[in-house]
What does this fold into?
Amino acid sequence: MDGKRYILAIDLGTTSVRTLAYDLQTNEIINIAQKKISQFYPHPGWVEQDAVEIVTAIISCLERTISNLSADLIYGVGITNQRETIVAWDKKTGKPFHRAIVWQCRRTFDYCEQLKKDKRTADMIHRRTGLLVDSYFSATKMAWLLKNSERTAKARAAGRLCFGTLDSYLIYCLTGGAAFVTDHSNASRTLLYNLKLQDWDPELCKFFDIPMESLPRIINCDEYIAEFKIKGKNLRLGGLIGDQQSSLFGQNCVRAGDFKTTYGTGAFMLANIGNAPVLNKQLLTTVAWKTSEGIVYALEGNMYSAGSCINWLQDHLRLISNPSESESLAGSVVDTGGVFFVPALSGLGAPFWKGNARATFSGITLSTTSAHLVRAVLRGITYNTRAVFDYMRSSFPINEREMRVDGGMTANSLLMQFQSDIMHFPVNVSAVTESTALGACYMAGLCFGAFKNIESISKLYKSKKIYKPTAHDTKRESNYEEWLRIVERL
Ligand code: ADP
It folds into this structure.
Protein backbone atom coordinates (compact mmCIF):
# COMPACT_ATOMS: atom_id res chain seq x y z
CA MET A 1 0.00 0.00 0.00
CA ASP A 2 3.05 2.34 -0.48
CA GLY A 3 2.63 3.90 2.98
CA LYS A 4 -0.30 6.09 2.02
CA ARG A 5 -3.26 6.44 4.32
CA TYR A 6 -5.76 9.13 3.30
CA ILE A 7 -8.14 9.74 0.42
CA LEU A 8 -9.61 13.22 0.05
CA ALA A 9 -13.00 14.15 -1.34
CA ILE A 10 -14.53 17.36 -2.60
CA ASP A 11 -18.31 17.41 -2.12
CA LEU A 12 -19.70 20.23 -4.20
CA GLY A 13 -23.23 20.57 -2.84
CA THR A 14 -26.05 22.98 -3.61
CA THR A 15 -26.02 25.06 -0.45
CA SER A 16 -22.42 24.45 0.62
CA VAL A 17 -19.19 22.83 -0.45
CA ARG A 18 -17.26 20.43 1.75
CA THR A 19 -13.89 18.78 1.66
CA LEU A 20 -12.76 15.95 3.91
CA ALA A 21 -10.28 13.14 4.35
CA TYR A 22 -11.07 9.45 4.63
CA ASP A 23 -8.64 7.61 6.87
CA LEU A 24 -8.18 4.09 5.50
CA GLN A 25 -6.64 2.83 8.72
CA THR A 26 -9.59 3.75 10.93
CA ASN A 27 -12.29 3.71 8.20
CA GLU A 28 -13.33 7.16 9.42
CA ILE A 29 -13.86 10.61 7.97
CA ILE A 30 -11.76 13.44 9.39
CA ASN A 31 -10.84 17.09 8.75
CA ILE A 32 -14.19 18.19 7.34
CA ALA A 33 -14.09 21.78 6.08
CA GLN A 34 -17.22 23.49 4.82
CA LYS A 35 -18.22 26.78 3.21
CA LYS A 36 -21.66 28.12 2.29
CA ILE A 37 -22.37 29.08 -1.31
CA SER A 38 -24.28 32.23 -2.31
CA GLN A 39 -27.57 31.66 -4.09
CA PHE A 40 -28.92 34.21 -6.54
CA TYR A 41 -32.62 34.42 -7.46
CA PRO A 42 -32.83 36.96 -10.30
CA HIS A 43 -36.51 36.10 -10.98
CA PRO A 44 -39.05 33.89 -9.18
CA GLY A 45 -38.11 30.27 -9.87
CA TRP A 46 -34.67 31.15 -11.25
CA VAL A 47 -31.57 29.99 -9.34
CA GLU A 48 -27.97 30.94 -10.09
CA GLN A 49 -24.58 30.51 -8.43
CA ASP A 50 -21.17 32.09 -8.93
CA ALA A 51 -18.88 29.35 -10.29
CA VAL A 52 -15.74 31.35 -9.39
CA GLU A 53 -16.93 31.69 -5.79
CA ILE A 54 -17.47 27.91 -5.69
CA VAL A 55 -13.95 27.14 -6.92
CA THR A 56 -12.44 29.64 -4.47
CA ALA A 57 -14.47 28.10 -1.61
CA ILE A 58 -13.29 24.61 -2.52
CA ILE A 59 -9.65 25.66 -2.63
CA SER A 60 -9.92 27.29 0.79
CA CYS A 61 -11.66 24.20 2.22
CA LEU A 62 -9.00 21.91 0.72
CA GLU A 63 -6.29 24.04 2.31
CA ARG A 64 -7.91 23.46 5.70
CA THR A 65 -8.48 19.74 5.15
CA ILE A 66 -4.86 19.06 4.23
CA SER A 67 -3.23 21.51 6.64
CA ASN A 68 -2.11 18.77 9.05
CA LEU A 69 -1.70 15.96 6.48
CA SER A 70 1.53 15.21 4.67
CA ALA A 71 1.06 15.00 0.87
CA ASP A 72 3.07 11.73 0.93
CA LEU A 73 0.25 10.09 2.89
CA ILE A 74 -2.50 11.14 0.47
CA TYR A 75 -3.57 8.84 -2.37
CA GLY A 76 -5.50 11.50 -4.21
CA VAL A 77 -8.66 13.57 -4.39
CA GLY A 78 -12.07 12.44 -5.62
CA ILE A 79 -14.96 14.74 -6.56
CA THR A 80 -18.71 14.45 -6.15
CA ASN A 81 -20.98 17.28 -7.17
CA GLN A 82 -24.47 18.70 -7.47
CA ARG A 83 -25.56 17.48 -10.87
CA GLU A 84 -27.09 19.20 -13.92
CA THR A 85 -25.93 22.73 -12.97
CA ILE A 86 -24.32 24.30 -15.98
CA VAL A 87 -21.41 26.72 -16.57
CA ALA A 88 -20.29 28.36 -19.84
CA TRP A 89 -16.71 29.63 -19.81
CA ASP A 90 -13.88 30.91 -21.97
CA LYS A 91 -11.51 28.22 -23.24
CA LYS A 92 -8.61 30.71 -23.13
CA THR A 93 -9.12 32.51 -19.81
CA GLY A 94 -11.30 30.05 -17.83
CA LYS A 95 -13.65 32.93 -16.98
CA PRO A 96 -17.41 32.18 -16.96
CA PHE A 97 -19.62 34.11 -19.39
CA HIS A 98 -22.61 33.99 -17.07
CA ARG A 99 -23.49 32.83 -13.57
CA ALA A 100 -23.95 29.06 -13.28
CA ILE A 101 -27.56 28.01 -13.89
CA VAL A 102 -28.46 25.69 -11.03
CA TRP A 103 -30.37 22.40 -11.39
CA GLN A 104 -33.34 23.81 -9.46
CA CYS A 105 -33.72 26.73 -11.89
CA ARG A 106 -37.08 26.67 -13.71
CA ARG A 107 -36.28 29.29 -16.39
CA THR A 108 -36.76 26.80 -19.21
CA PHE A 109 -40.05 25.44 -17.84
CA ASP A 110 -42.16 26.83 -20.72
CA TYR A 111 -39.74 25.57 -23.34
CA CYS A 112 -39.86 22.09 -21.79
CA GLU A 113 -43.68 22.15 -21.64
CA GLN A 114 -43.65 23.03 -25.34
CA LEU A 115 -41.29 20.16 -26.15
CA LYS A 116 -43.34 17.68 -24.12
CA LYS A 117 -46.44 18.39 -26.16
CA ASP A 118 -44.85 16.47 -29.01
CA LYS A 119 -45.11 12.96 -27.59
CA ARG A 120 -42.80 11.47 -30.21
CA THR A 121 -40.03 13.90 -29.28
CA ALA A 122 -40.49 13.24 -25.56
CA ASP A 123 -40.38 9.48 -26.20
CA MET A 124 -37.30 9.77 -28.40
CA ILE A 125 -35.52 11.75 -25.66
CA HIS A 126 -36.56 9.29 -22.96
CA ARG A 127 -35.41 6.29 -25.03
CA ARG A 128 -31.99 7.79 -25.68
CA THR A 129 -31.26 9.50 -22.36
CA GLY A 130 -33.46 7.70 -19.80
CA LEU A 131 -34.58 11.17 -18.65
CA LEU A 132 -37.79 13.14 -18.94
CA VAL A 133 -37.99 16.50 -20.67
CA ASP A 134 -37.64 18.83 -17.71
CA SER A 135 -35.93 22.14 -16.98
CA TYR A 136 -34.04 20.29 -14.22
CA PHE A 137 -31.57 18.81 -16.74
CA SER A 138 -28.72 20.70 -18.41
CA ALA A 139 -29.49 20.83 -22.16
CA THR A 140 -32.29 23.39 -22.10
CA LYS A 141 -30.24 25.55 -19.72
CA MET A 142 -27.37 25.52 -22.25
CA ALA A 143 -29.77 26.38 -25.08
CA TRP A 144 -31.09 29.28 -22.96
CA LEU A 145 -27.55 30.63 -22.47
CA LEU A 146 -26.78 30.46 -26.19
CA LYS A 147 -29.94 32.44 -26.89
CA ASN A 148 -29.81 34.94 -24.05
CA SER A 149 -26.16 35.49 -23.18
CA GLU A 150 -24.45 37.44 -25.93
CA ARG A 151 -21.01 36.59 -24.58
CA THR A 152 -21.80 32.86 -24.68
CA ALA A 153 -23.10 33.08 -28.26
CA LYS A 154 -20.05 35.09 -29.37
CA ALA A 155 -17.68 32.61 -27.76
CA ARG A 156 -19.39 29.81 -29.65
CA ALA A 157 -18.85 31.64 -32.94
CA ALA A 158 -15.19 32.28 -32.03
CA GLY A 159 -14.62 28.62 -31.03
CA ARG A 160 -13.82 29.63 -27.43
CA LEU A 161 -16.81 28.16 -25.66
CA CYS A 162 -16.56 25.47 -22.97
CA PHE A 163 -19.84 24.09 -21.67
CA GLY A 164 -19.85 21.83 -18.65
CA THR A 165 -21.41 20.82 -15.37
CA LEU A 166 -19.71 22.16 -12.23
CA ASP A 167 -17.37 19.16 -11.95
CA SER A 168 -15.90 20.04 -15.36
CA TYR A 169 -15.45 23.67 -14.46
CA LEU A 170 -13.83 22.86 -11.13
CA ILE A 171 -11.39 20.42 -12.75
CA TYR A 172 -10.61 22.92 -15.51
CA CYS A 173 -9.75 25.54 -12.89
CA LEU A 174 -7.79 23.25 -10.55
CA THR A 175 -5.66 21.97 -13.45
CA GLY A 176 -5.16 25.38 -15.09
CA GLY A 177 -7.12 24.31 -18.17
CA ALA A 178 -5.11 21.10 -18.67
CA ALA A 179 -8.15 18.83 -18.21
CA PHE A 180 -11.58 19.44 -19.76
CA VAL A 181 -13.50 16.34 -18.68
CA THR A 182 -16.64 15.05 -17.04
CA ASP A 183 -17.65 11.48 -16.13
CA HIS A 184 -20.47 9.23 -17.31
CA SER A 185 -22.65 9.73 -14.21
CA ASN A 186 -22.67 13.51 -14.65
CA ALA A 187 -22.92 13.39 -18.44
CA SER A 188 -26.00 11.19 -18.15
CA ARG A 189 -27.86 14.08 -16.45
CA THR A 190 -27.56 16.54 -19.32
CA LEU A 191 -30.18 15.23 -21.82
CA LEU A 192 -27.29 15.04 -24.32
CA TYR A 193 -25.92 11.63 -23.31
CA ASN A 194 -27.05 8.44 -24.98
CA LEU A 195 -27.26 5.57 -22.49
CA LYS A 196 -26.57 2.93 -25.12
CA LEU A 197 -23.77 4.75 -26.99
CA GLN A 198 -22.30 5.69 -23.58
CA ASP A 199 -21.33 8.99 -25.15
CA TRP A 200 -22.69 12.37 -26.26
CA ASP A 201 -25.51 11.84 -28.73
CA PRO A 202 -24.80 13.87 -31.91
CA GLU A 203 -28.49 13.99 -32.84
CA LEU A 204 -29.56 15.27 -29.43
CA CYS A 205 -26.82 17.93 -29.56
CA LYS A 206 -28.23 18.97 -32.92
CA PHE A 207 -31.79 18.87 -31.60
CA PHE A 208 -30.96 21.25 -28.72
CA ASP A 209 -28.46 23.13 -30.92
CA ILE A 210 -25.56 22.58 -28.53
CA PRO A 211 -22.12 22.53 -30.18
CA MET A 212 -20.66 19.11 -29.40
CA GLU A 213 -17.10 20.45 -29.67
CA SER A 214 -17.83 22.68 -26.64
CA LEU A 215 -18.58 19.69 -24.40
CA PRO A 216 -16.01 17.97 -22.17
CA ARG A 217 -14.49 14.58 -22.86
CA ILE A 218 -16.30 11.87 -20.88
CA ILE A 219 -14.04 9.76 -18.69
CA ASN A 220 -14.62 6.75 -16.43
CA CYS A 221 -15.49 7.50 -12.82
CA ASP A 222 -12.28 5.83 -11.61
CA GLU A 223 -10.01 7.39 -14.24
CA TYR A 224 -6.94 9.42 -13.33
CA ILE A 225 -7.44 13.09 -14.22
CA ALA A 226 -4.35 15.19 -13.50
CA GLU A 227 -2.10 16.65 -10.84
CA PHE A 228 -2.70 20.00 -9.18
CA LYS A 229 -1.19 22.02 -6.36
CA ILE A 230 -2.71 23.28 -3.11
CA LYS A 231 -0.50 25.34 -0.79
CA GLY A 232 2.60 23.96 -2.48
CA LYS A 233 1.47 20.35 -2.02
CA ASN A 234 1.12 18.22 -5.14
CA LEU A 235 -2.17 16.33 -5.19
CA ARG A 236 -3.64 13.93 -7.74
CA LEU A 237 -7.21 14.20 -9.00
CA GLY A 238 -9.13 11.04 -9.86
CA GLY A 239 -12.52 9.58 -8.91
CA LEU A 240 -15.44 11.61 -10.24
CA ILE A 241 -19.13 10.88 -9.71
CA GLY A 242 -22.45 12.79 -9.42
CA ASP A 243 -23.79 13.21 -5.88
CA GLN A 244 -26.74 10.79 -5.84
CA GLN A 245 -24.82 8.07 -7.66
CA SER A 246 -21.96 8.70 -5.25
CA SER A 247 -24.19 8.09 -2.24
CA LEU A 248 -25.41 4.84 -3.87
CA PHE A 249 -21.75 3.84 -4.18
CA GLY A 250 -20.89 5.17 -0.70
CA GLN A 251 -23.75 3.06 0.71
CA ASN A 252 -22.10 0.05 -0.98
CA CYS A 253 -25.14 -0.68 -3.14
CA VAL A 254 -22.88 -2.38 -5.66
CA ARG A 255 -24.99 -5.41 -6.58
CA ALA A 256 -27.90 -5.27 -9.01
CA GLY A 257 -31.08 -4.84 -6.97
CA ASP A 258 -29.41 -2.97 -4.07
CA PHE A 259 -30.98 0.41 -3.39
CA LYS A 260 -30.84 3.44 -1.14
CA THR A 261 -32.79 6.57 -0.29
CA THR A 262 -31.19 9.83 0.79
CA TYR A 263 -33.50 11.99 2.90
CA GLY A 264 -32.27 15.57 2.71
CA THR A 265 -34.11 18.69 1.54
CA GLY A 266 -35.60 16.41 -1.11
CA ALA A 267 -35.45 12.60 -1.14
CA PHE A 268 -33.68 10.51 -3.75
CA MET A 269 -34.17 6.81 -4.23
CA LEU A 270 -31.66 5.07 -6.48
CA ALA A 271 -31.50 1.39 -7.32
CA ASN A 272 -28.56 -0.38 -8.90
CA ILE A 273 -30.00 -2.13 -11.98
CA GLY A 274 -26.82 -3.72 -13.29
CA ASN A 275 -25.24 -3.52 -16.71
CA ALA A 276 -28.21 -2.79 -18.96
CA PRO A 277 -30.46 0.27 -18.92
CA VAL A 278 -34.12 -0.37 -18.03
CA LEU A 279 -36.69 2.32 -18.81
CA ASN A 280 -39.72 3.27 -16.72
CA LYS A 281 -41.85 6.25 -17.71
CA GLN A 282 -42.39 7.29 -14.07
CA LEU A 283 -38.70 7.12 -13.13
CA LEU A 284 -35.34 8.25 -14.47
CA THR A 285 -32.71 5.90 -15.82
CA THR A 286 -29.18 7.09 -15.36
CA VAL A 287 -25.58 5.91 -15.30
CA ALA A 288 -24.70 4.94 -11.73
CA TRP A 289 -20.99 4.68 -12.56
CA LYS A 290 -18.65 3.46 -15.26
CA THR A 291 -15.30 2.13 -14.11
CA SER A 292 -12.63 -0.18 -15.49
CA GLU A 293 -14.94 -3.00 -14.29
CA GLY A 294 -17.76 -1.87 -16.59
CA ILE A 295 -20.88 0.24 -16.60
CA VAL A 296 -23.68 0.12 -14.01
CA TYR A 297 -27.05 1.82 -14.49
CA ALA A 298 -29.54 3.03 -11.90
CA LEU A 299 -33.24 3.78 -11.69
CA GLU A 300 -33.83 7.04 -9.86
CA GLY A 301 -36.87 8.60 -8.23
CA ASN A 302 -36.58 12.22 -7.11
CA MET A 303 -39.02 13.49 -4.53
CA TYR A 304 -38.80 17.25 -4.44
CA SER A 305 -39.97 17.77 -0.86
CA ALA A 306 -38.87 15.79 2.18
CA GLY A 307 -36.79 17.69 4.77
CA SER A 308 -38.14 20.91 3.25
CA CYS A 309 -41.56 19.91 4.70
CA ILE A 310 -39.98 19.85 8.16
CA ASN A 311 -38.39 23.26 7.58
CA TRP A 312 -41.79 24.54 6.48
CA LEU A 313 -43.47 23.18 9.64
CA GLN A 314 -40.81 24.97 11.64
CA ASP A 315 -40.29 28.27 9.81
CA HIS A 316 -43.71 28.98 8.33
CA LEU A 317 -46.31 27.12 10.38
CA ARG A 318 -44.25 27.32 13.59
CA LEU A 319 -45.66 24.00 14.78
CA ILE A 320 -42.18 22.89 15.85
CA SER A 321 -39.13 24.84 16.96
CA ASN A 322 -36.50 22.48 15.55
CA PRO A 323 -36.51 19.46 13.18
CA SER A 324 -36.17 16.84 15.93
CA GLU A 325 -39.36 18.13 17.56
CA SER A 326 -41.23 16.72 14.57
CA GLU A 327 -40.55 13.31 16.07
CA SER A 328 -41.62 14.04 19.66
CA LEU A 329 -44.75 15.90 18.59
CA ALA A 330 -45.82 13.27 16.04
CA GLY A 331 -45.10 10.57 18.63
CA SER A 332 -47.43 12.20 21.17
CA VAL A 333 -50.48 10.86 19.30
CA VAL A 334 -51.22 7.29 18.24
CA ASP A 335 -52.35 8.08 14.69
CA THR A 336 -52.93 11.00 12.33
CA GLY A 337 -56.60 11.23 13.33
CA GLY A 338 -57.56 10.61 9.70
CA VAL A 339 -55.38 13.45 8.33
CA PHE A 340 -53.42 12.94 5.10
CA PHE A 341 -50.64 15.11 3.71
CA VAL A 342 -49.24 15.15 0.19
CA PRO A 343 -45.71 16.63 0.22
CA ALA A 344 -46.05 18.70 -2.95
CA LEU A 345 -44.57 21.93 -1.58
CA SER A 346 -42.47 22.33 -4.77
CA GLY A 347 -44.74 20.34 -7.05
CA LEU A 348 -44.72 16.54 -7.09
CA GLY A 349 -41.73 14.73 -8.56
CA ALA A 350 -41.35 10.96 -8.92
CA PRO A 351 -43.31 8.90 -9.51
CA PHE A 352 -46.24 11.26 -10.21
CA TRP A 353 -44.54 14.15 -12.05
CA LYS A 354 -47.17 16.75 -11.34
CA GLY A 355 -45.03 19.88 -11.47
CA ASN A 356 -47.93 22.21 -10.81
CA ALA A 357 -49.47 20.19 -7.97
CA ARG A 358 -49.70 21.90 -4.59
CA ALA A 359 -49.30 20.30 -1.16
CA THR A 360 -52.51 19.35 0.64
CA PHE A 361 -53.72 18.40 4.06
CA SER A 362 -57.02 16.54 4.00
CA GLY A 363 -59.29 14.96 6.57
CA ILE A 364 -59.00 17.82 9.08
CA THR A 365 -61.74 18.09 11.73
CA LEU A 366 -62.29 20.09 14.93
CA SER A 367 -60.37 17.43 16.86
CA THR A 368 -57.24 17.68 14.69
CA THR A 369 -54.19 18.90 16.61
CA SER A 370 -50.75 20.08 15.52
CA ALA A 371 -49.45 16.61 16.50
CA HIS A 372 -51.82 14.98 13.98
CA LEU A 373 -50.67 17.37 11.26
CA VAL A 374 -46.99 16.73 11.91
CA ARG A 375 -47.57 12.96 12.05
CA ALA A 376 -49.44 13.18 8.73
CA VAL A 377 -46.45 15.01 7.20
CA LEU A 378 -44.08 12.22 8.24
CA ARG A 379 -46.51 9.60 6.91
CA GLY A 380 -46.90 11.51 3.63
CA ILE A 381 -43.14 11.49 3.03
CA THR A 382 -42.99 7.72 3.62
CA TYR A 383 -46.00 7.09 1.33
CA ASN A 384 -44.30 9.00 -1.48
CA THR A 385 -41.15 6.93 -0.95
CA ARG A 386 -43.18 3.70 -1.05
CA ALA A 387 -44.83 4.85 -4.31
CA VAL A 388 -41.42 5.37 -5.93
CA PHE A 389 -40.37 1.95 -4.72
CA ASP A 390 -43.49 0.31 -6.17
CA TYR A 391 -42.58 1.64 -9.64
CA MET A 392 -38.99 0.51 -9.23
CA ARG A 393 -39.93 -3.03 -8.38
CA SER A 394 -42.36 -3.12 -11.30
CA SER A 395 -39.37 -2.62 -13.63
CA PHE A 396 -36.55 -4.47 -11.92
CA PRO A 397 -36.16 -7.20 -9.27
CA ILE A 398 -35.20 -4.96 -6.38
CA ASN A 399 -33.53 -6.59 -3.42
CA GLU A 400 -36.15 -6.39 -0.68
CA ARG A 401 -33.77 -7.55 2.01
CA GLU A 402 -33.39 -3.91 3.09
CA MET A 403 -33.35 -0.28 2.00
CA ARG A 404 -30.21 1.63 2.95
CA VAL A 405 -30.76 5.23 3.98
CA ASP A 406 -28.79 8.36 4.76
CA GLY A 407 -29.33 12.13 5.04
CA GLY A 408 -30.43 14.52 7.80
CA MET A 409 -33.94 13.10 8.19
CA THR A 410 -32.71 9.63 9.12
CA ALA A 411 -32.20 11.07 12.62
CA ASN A 412 -35.99 10.80 12.95
CA SER A 413 -36.68 7.30 14.36
CA LEU A 414 -40.43 7.60 13.93
CA LEU A 415 -40.04 8.44 10.24
CA MET A 416 -37.69 5.51 9.73
CA GLN A 417 -40.08 3.15 11.57
CA PHE A 418 -43.02 4.39 9.45
CA GLN A 419 -40.91 3.80 6.36
CA SER A 420 -40.05 0.25 7.31
CA ASP A 421 -43.68 -0.49 8.23
CA ILE A 422 -45.03 0.73 4.90
CA MET A 423 -42.29 -1.00 2.88
CA HIS A 424 -42.65 -4.26 4.86
CA PHE A 425 -38.89 -4.76 5.08
CA PRO A 426 -35.97 -3.33 7.12
CA VAL A 427 -34.59 0.17 6.71
CA ASN A 428 -30.87 0.32 7.40
CA VAL A 429 -29.35 3.65 8.50
CA SER A 430 -25.72 4.05 7.50
CA ALA A 431 -23.19 4.79 10.23
CA VAL A 432 -21.49 7.31 7.96
CA THR A 433 -23.57 10.43 7.51
CA GLU A 434 -21.31 11.59 4.68
CA SER A 435 -22.12 8.75 2.30
CA THR A 436 -22.07 11.07 -0.72
CA ALA A 437 -18.49 12.12 -0.01
CA LEU A 438 -17.62 8.56 0.95
CA GLY A 439 -18.65 7.40 -2.56
CA ALA A 440 -16.15 9.83 -4.07
CA CYS A 441 -13.46 8.61 -1.63
CA TYR A 442 -14.12 5.03 -2.71
CA MET A 443 -13.98 6.03 -6.38
CA ALA A 444 -10.67 7.87 -5.84
CA GLY A 445 -9.44 4.84 -3.88
CA LEU A 446 -10.17 2.64 -6.91
CA CYS A 447 -8.40 5.11 -9.18
CA PHE A 448 -5.24 5.25 -7.07
CA GLY A 449 -5.05 1.57 -6.11
CA ALA A 450 -6.08 1.91 -2.45
CA PHE A 451 -8.73 -0.74 -3.18
CA LYS A 452 -8.32 -3.78 -5.39
CA ASN A 453 -11.82 -3.72 -6.82
CA ILE A 454 -15.43 -2.77 -6.08
CA GLU A 455 -16.09 -6.07 -4.34
CA SER A 456 -13.42 -5.29 -1.74
CA ILE A 457 -15.06 -1.93 -0.96
CA SER A 458 -18.46 -3.48 -0.38
CA LYS A 459 -17.18 -5.09 2.82
CA LEU A 460 -16.58 -1.67 4.40
CA TYR A 461 -20.27 -0.89 5.00
CA LYS A 462 -21.14 0.07 8.55
CA SER A 463 -24.71 0.22 9.82
CA LYS A 464 -25.85 2.50 12.63
CA LYS A 465 -29.37 1.21 13.17
CA ILE A 466 -31.81 -1.15 11.49
CA TYR A 467 -35.57 -0.51 11.69
CA LYS A 468 -37.63 -3.67 11.20
CA PRO A 469 -41.31 -3.63 10.23
CA THR A 470 -43.69 -4.02 13.14
CA ALA A 471 -46.57 -6.52 13.03
CA HIS A 472 -48.67 -6.36 9.90
CA ASP A 473 -51.64 -4.04 10.06
CA THR A 474 -54.21 -3.98 7.23
CA LYS A 475 -55.19 -0.39 8.07
CA ARG A 476 -51.71 0.69 7.08
CA GLU A 477 -52.09 -0.55 3.52
CA SER A 478 -55.58 0.90 3.15
CA ASN A 479 -54.29 4.28 4.38
CA TYR A 480 -51.59 4.16 1.73
CA GLU A 481 -54.20 3.41 -0.94
CA GLU A 482 -56.31 6.32 0.30
CA TRP A 483 -53.24 8.57 0.05
CA LEU A 484 -52.70 7.41 -3.57
CA ARG A 485 -56.31 8.32 -4.38
CA ILE A 486 -55.76 11.81 -2.97
CA VAL A 487 -52.65 12.24 -5.13
CA GLU A 488 -54.58 11.12 -8.19
CA ARG A 489 -57.05 13.94 -7.71
CA LEU A 490 -54.34 16.65 -7.55
P1 ADP B 1 -29.27 18.58 2.38
O1 ADP B 1 -28.02 17.81 2.11
O2 ADP B 1 -30.32 18.46 1.32
O3 ADP B 1 -29.05 19.99 2.81
P2 ADP B 1 -29.38 17.11 4.92
O4 ADP B 1 -29.08 15.68 4.63
O5 ADP B 1 -28.34 17.94 5.61
O6 ADP B 1 -29.98 17.84 3.64
O7 ADP B 1 -30.70 17.11 5.84
C1 ADP B 1 -31.30 18.31 6.24
C2 ADP B 1 -32.81 18.14 6.29
O8 ADP B 1 -33.14 17.15 7.25
C3 ADP B 1 -33.49 19.42 6.71
O9 ADP B 1 -34.56 19.70 5.83
C4 ADP B 1 -33.99 19.14 8.12
O10 ADP B 1 -35.22 19.79 8.38
C5 ADP B 1 -34.18 17.64 8.10
N1 ADP B 1 -34.00 17.04 9.44
C6 ADP B 1 -32.92 17.09 10.23
N2 ADP B 1 -33.14 16.44 11.40
C7 ADP B 1 -34.41 15.96 11.34
C8 ADP B 1 -35.26 15.22 12.24
N3 ADP B 1 -34.81 14.80 13.43
N4 ADP B 1 -36.51 14.92 11.83
C9 ADP B 1 -36.96 15.31 10.63
N5 ADP B 1 -36.21 16.03 9.75
C10 ADP B 1 -34.96 16.35 10.09
